[in-house]
Structures are given as structure tokens and as C-alpha cells.
Design goal:
13 helices; Rossmann fold; 5-stranded mixed sheet; 22% strand; 3 domains
Length: 432
Amino acid sequence: MKKIAIVPYAGARKWLYKNVENIEAFYEQLDLSLVDAGDQVYGILTIEEAAQVVEKGAQYFSLSCQPNSLLNGTYEQFLTAQPRITSFDIRPQQQGVLTSIYQAFAKKLAAGLNRQLDKLRHYRIADLRLAFYALMTATGIGIFADAVTGVELFKNHLVYWFGKDKAWFEQYFTIYWLIEMFAGLIIFFTASIGLRHQAANWVPLRDVKRQDPDRAYAAIVLTLSTGYRFEQRDNKWFFIKQKQIDQNTFTKATEVELTGDLDQDLINLEPLKIQWELILRILRSQANHINSKLSHAVLLGTQDCSIKNREGLVERIAPGTYPQIKNALKVLQLYPEFSQIKFEPYPIPIPPNDIEAYYNAYLKTARKWQHQYKLAEEDMLIDITGGKSVNSVGAALATLHNKMQFHYVDTNNLNDVLVYRMEFKQQKSFHE
């Protein structure tokens, strides 16, 4: 089961993101091929579209406000309009009662199975081993305690299976008692040692492991940095390296016309030492890989950020990179090398200093790629060349419990590509 939203308005989209947990993707218009049985669809649909969603076995939750004209307002306007979410069950009139019951049952069954599968995906072998050794430790304690109190374990089994009588137990009670006690102790100590080693794997101690930089990936997440923008004039695209003078004033430091020839544009952009050139190099290396399988790429952008002085007063507003994604996606379409890649924007801007927002964005993107496009986690790459330092922390955390990798291109050496994964590390004592 997944949650998606169909909302064409930025203010309403931001409200949904903040008030409905785990929405995986936002779209401006409905595409029924993205909806599966058991899904939850939030947003603003016509009655016909809502009926089509419900017919596929999904749930529809309508977003509305009062007055309805503020649906396309800003986030602050939308907050004052009493926004609400209403569940609808829209079906054609000719549908029979038995069909309705069957579809409702199938929908609940599918949703239940999806929930159970989601839970199982969070379990690791280390978790199961930890539980096993904990159970064996408790069992050893129980056996030893019974032996100390004189309880004869498995007495019924010895009587019924092997015909042992009361006289036999009286004759061999001491030996039986010693065996029982030592068995409890052996089980306890053995399980305790195993429990310690497994706990070392389970406790969140991490290690960063270098990966193969020349591997091909099927999907990549890219984050736009500040300092540049794109303009289209006379059907030509221009890359503009810019510098902010104050809150409302920018200067054009350098302007480069983009030709659509990838190699030539990289040569023209290289002297600027800007992150966009590295993005193009990353995409080119994957698109031209001998085992190339890159099919999806998501661009993340940041929201506006206030810059404060020592007294806590806002001196200026640093513009976010999210508004540049729309033009960036159009520029990427200029290059034939990227024709097989489906580029998408992450649906909402990321607060530039919010590690949790970056972390959740990576996990939601990966979950969408898994469920919607059936991509494997180990084929997903997070690039941290762009963005701020918190972006790197969020990417490292996202790879901890998953098989994704994070990736950095050294800006001082364009041939040095660094790929890492966060992994669990066996705990060692100071004496080892």
C-alpha cells in the first residue's frame, strides 16, 4: 500500500505533506497507471476521476477548504481556510451488492498483506538471532532454577517413553539432578556469549565502507546547489552563474549558452567550477557505462532560508533551489545521452538545515522506486556532491538500514568518484 497525492497547487500540497504522514509522491494530475488496489489517494479530483480511483480498489480522500476558492492560494492563505480531508466511496449505481462486498473484502485483504510485508521488510537476520539467543538464555536460567529446587525435568517423558519407574528416579536422583543443573548452566553461558555477539551486531554501531565507484546504477538522487540558474531566450537555454548582492538583487557573474552537445557544454562549464557541471558528469558516466541501466533520476531542491545576524534578526532571505528544478529538467532534455532516463522533481522543497527532511526524502524516493518501478535497493545511488553538509548526513543515515549507496565527486579531482555505504560493525572491546 502506498499513499500518493494529486494536487496542482503548491499551498495545498505543502499542507498535505505536513498533515498526512508517509505520502510517497505528489502529482499535478491523475495517472491511473500509478494507482494500485489498496493505495490511498489524497487530493482534488473530479467525481469521474474519484470513481475511477475507487474502482481500482484504492481509497480516495478529498481535500477541501472554506471558501473553496482558496485551494489555489498560498500555504498561509490555505491554513486560514479550514482545510479538511474527507473520505469518499464513489461507485457506479449499477454495481451489485455482492460485487461491492467482494471488492471491499479484496481491498482490505490487499491492504493487510501490504502492511505485513512492510513489517517483514524491517526485520534482519541479526534481529532473529538476537531473539533466539535471548530465548535460549532464559531457558538455561529456567532449567538451572528448576534443578536447584529439585524439579525433575522431562520426568513424564522418561516414564511414558522409556518405562522408568519411581524406584529408578530414587536410585539415580543425584546423577539426574547434577546433569540437569550442568545442562542449565551450559545452555545459559553458551546462549549468553551468543547473545553478546549478536547484540554487538544489533546495537547501532556503524562503519563506513568504500564501494566500487565504477558500478552501474538504475536510479540516482541529485540535489541542486545554489549559485546558478537557467534562462531561456529566443529558444536557447543559458546557464547563469550568479551572485546575490542583497535580498532582491543578483548579479550575472558568468553566462554560458547551452548547445545540447554534452561534451562541448561540459568544456564550456568547467572553468566556472559549479556543481551543475558535476551533475552532468555523473549522469554522463552512468548513461555511457558499459553496463548502463540508469532509468530514473530525482532532483531535490531546497526552500528559501532566512539568514540571521548575531542578534537573531533576519538580515536577508537566501533563495532556495527548488524553483530552479523545473528549468533544470528542461535543460537535461537537451542531451540525447539522457533520453532513456526519466527525470522527476521531488514533490516538495527541502528545508536546507533539516537532516530529517533529507533522510525522509531519500527513503520515500527509494520506496517509490521499489514499489512503482520494481527497482532493487542496491541499484539506487544518492549523490551528495550538491547541497549542504546536512544533506550528506541524511544520505549516510538513509544507507544504514538499506542497501542504497551514497556518492560524492571530488570537486578538486573530477576523476575521483567516492561511493560509500553505512554498515553495521561488530563491536570490539578495548583489549581486542
